[in-house]
Amino acid sequence: MAERKESWTSLASLLGTLAFCQTFLQLVLPPELRHVSLKLLNRALRCFSSYCYFDVTEMDGVNTNELYNAVQLYLSSFASTSASASRLSLTRARNSSVTTFGLSSNDSIADVFDGVAVQWEHAVTQRQSQPSPWRALPDEKRSFKLRIRKRDKDLILNSYLDYIMGKASDIRRNNQERLIYTNSRSNESRGRPWEAVPFKHPSTFDTLAMDPEKKRDIMEDLRDFAAGQAFYQRTGRAWKRGYLLYGPPGTGKSSMIAAMANFLGYDIYDLELTEVPSNSELRKLLMKTSSKSIIVIEDIDCSVNLSNRSKAPKAPAPQSYSDPDAPDAASGGKDWNNNTMTLSGLLNFTDGLWSCCGSERIFVFTTNHIEKLDPALLRSGRMDMHICMSHCSYPALEILLDNYLGSKGEDLGEVAASELQEAVEKAKMTPADISEVLIKNRRNKEKAVSELLEVLKARADRNEKYGGLREECKSNRVEEEEQEKRALESPEEVRDREDNSGKKVEDQ
Ligand SMILES: Nc1ncnc2c1ncn2[C@@H]1O[C@H](COP(=O)(O)OP(=O)(O)OP(=O)(O)O)[C@@H](O)[C@H]1O
Ligand SMILES: [Mg+2]
């Protein structure tokens, strides 16, 4: 007991001496000298330490330090599960559904990279004065202090910081809402060629009704693409990929683009060709797109007359495309004209040297009429994958039934399922048409299924009677309208027409 009392007394006297020394030094030494001696003391201590320290300050002069933001995001990704962090701050950005964890002031967290242990500390101090009268800085000076063993510094520092930057941009993209950009001449005149709005399309690969195997292939292809930086680098290819989606209206081409964007977490640039006055403007638009994005041109066959836009800007006239085999066409020679937009300009946009001014970009073209597209757009290497979005098959119908009614194929019972299967294969209806029937009756499953069966059978009968569409993916709106007209014609009228033309109705 007496011993403990003694040790308390000596501790108190030690503290008293230290306090006296500090006050004495403060009185005797001028502040500048104090500062210098502290610095020297620190330096001496650092010489004996086996660690080195790096400060990542929030502000770099008057500019925001990107690395600080990246470190903050990166640490937040594992702060909540790390055993070394004792106190966390929680934030949620506007329009975001994600809560972000962060290190509280002066708390620290451990991390391991390539087997090397490091430590981060979040240092927060009050700012003494505003260095810039033009730009107000935060009241607090914040920084992250990185502690690495001296022997590990050269081994990991650069690669670790690169890794953090990459990770942070992934997290940012996943946390943020995706954007859809569109171009217009009025924006261009204001110096902002793309205008963005939040992209909230709910389509995903789960809700997309199509053959599951085909769907798996596409998802795998996208996954490989997104993770393929090293592959593209090694093979000397630009890190981009082209998809051509073709098929009749209402088969899910636009839904597929939305599903791709949601799957990869990419933004969408919806390029309106009719708003692009020339090849050079097209190139400028391309230069202002970001990486990790999908550049979409919908209805490529009819959005613009690529060879002579001034005459017929909206005419769907594929035969008037400039000939890609003609001299200078695809190379952008004579056609690379500043006042017009040409097929060669478009090909350069997707394929030429300028297409590589960013990386990790996907080009998607859609069309209802693949047969009308210029072969130059279809040649291998240009559009890497041609995806036919066709009429609704039974596996696709099962997905729609699950989407709208919450029932699986097996819930229908064997008879209804096989009836539906037979009818849907013969009906050749689009997922959009089938969705309409299901949405209308979604509160009553039995009614929905029976009405769907009725509609499918009626369509199947009609197809059998008047001929189905020749080839699934060649069908188009015009064809369907004609078919509808034919369905309304009397059999005599049909026979007369067949006799006159010498051809069958469905071969026309
Ligand atoms: N494969 C599909 N899976 C799920 N829903 C689909 C599918 N196809 C069409 N739909 C439904 O039909 C609607 C129209 O589809 P979408 O706009 O994707 O068709 P599209 O092929 O782009 O048509 P268009 O050629 O006229 O542009 C969608 O909102 C969606 O609800
Ligand atoms: Mg569409």
Automatic annotation (TrEMBL):
According to its UniProt record, which reaction does this protein catalyse? ATP + H2O = ADP + phosphate + H(+)
Any keyword ATP-binding?
yes
What span is annotated as the signal peptide, if there is one?
Answer: none
Chain segments carrying region Disordered: 308-334, 466-508
Out of the domains of life, which is the source? Eukaryota
Query: Pfam family example for this protein?
Result: AAA
UniProt domain AAA+ ATPase: residue ranges: 239-393
Single GO biological process annotation from the record: response to stress
One of the entry's Gene Ontology molecular-function terms is:
ATP binding
Is Cell membrane among this UniProt entry's keywords?
no
Stored SUPFAM superfamilies: P-loop containing nucleoside triphosphate hydrolases
InterPro entries on file: AAA+_ATPase (IPR003593), AAA_N_dom (IPR025753), At3g28540-like_C (IPR058017), ATPase_AAA_core (IPR003959), Mitochondrial_chaperone_BCS1 (IPR050747), P-loop_NTPase (IPR027417)
Listed CDD domains: RecA-like_BCS1 (cd19510)
Keywords from the named record: ATP-binding, Hydrolase, Magnesium, Nucleotide-binding
Cofactor(s) recorded in Swiss-Prot or TrEMBL = Mg(2+)
Concerning its family, UniProt says:
Belongs to the AAA ATPase family. BCS1 subfamily.
Q: What is this protein called?
A: AAA+ ATPase domain-containing protein
Q: Which organism is it from?
A: Eucalyptus grandis (Flooded gum)
